Amino acid sequence: MKKKVAVFLIVLTAAVSLWANQQHSEHGHTGHTGHSVSSASESSTPLSAGGEAAFTALIEVVGLLEVDVDTDWSNVDITALHSHLVDMSNVMLSTSVVADELTDSSLLFKVVATENAVGSLQRTARAHANYISTIRPWKIEVSPNETGVTVQITPESSADLQKLNALGFYGFMALDSHHQAHHWQIATGNGEHVHGSH
User: How far apart are CA 97 and CA 149, in angstroms?
Assistant: First the structure.
């Protein structure tokens, strides 16, 4: 059985590779610097993502703003959204959990950031904790320090404590995703945003 699966995967990989090469040839791609991809803006492209994650988010927001006839361009603030996305990127790429301490009732994360990401970490952790506290019966304490933050979470149930232990700090930051709605609020001038606030 394992041999059959391995053969299937090899055939599948070859088929995908062949398809990719055909697409590459049909679209006349000659490299990024040449930009000769039969007009990169053509709607026939099979790609949907815009590349780097923050830029992709901006592409989506700007596209929606343009097609919405009710967009109030006097309130649009893409610069504020960009700053917020920088904060999010800093948290994901320029921080690390140096310790987590599990007790019978709570979980404590000690998170440090590079010098330029400390502010991003503190803003984002505080704001996310405030949001989670409004929809889950958890006690969350965020304490900023010179190198980052400590986040102590005390849920009501042992099941939630086990879940948090499995998720870790970054999984906690991804809980109850409200980011898309918040990004739209910032971009349209309806969301609070102070120097990259979450």
Answer: 10
CA distance 148 to 91: 10
The boundaries of the domain holding residue 142 are 78-187
Same domain, residue pair 34 and 88 = no
Q: Is 196 within a domain?
A: no
Summarize pLDDT for 26-55 with one digit per residue, the tens.
Answer: 444 444 444 444 445 556 777 777 778 889
Residue segments in the chain with a per-residue pLDDT below the cut of 70: 1-43, 191-198
User: Interior CA angle at 95 toward 89 and 99, to 5°?
Assistant: 145
The two tokens of residue 28 are 């006349």
Taking the complete model, does pTM exceed 0.85, yes or no?
no
Is residue 108 within 8 Å of residue 125, measured between CB atoms? Answer: no
Check if the beta carbon of residue 120 is closer than 8 Å to that of residue 87: yes
Helix, strand, coil proportions of the chain in percent (round to 5)? Answer: 50, 15, 35
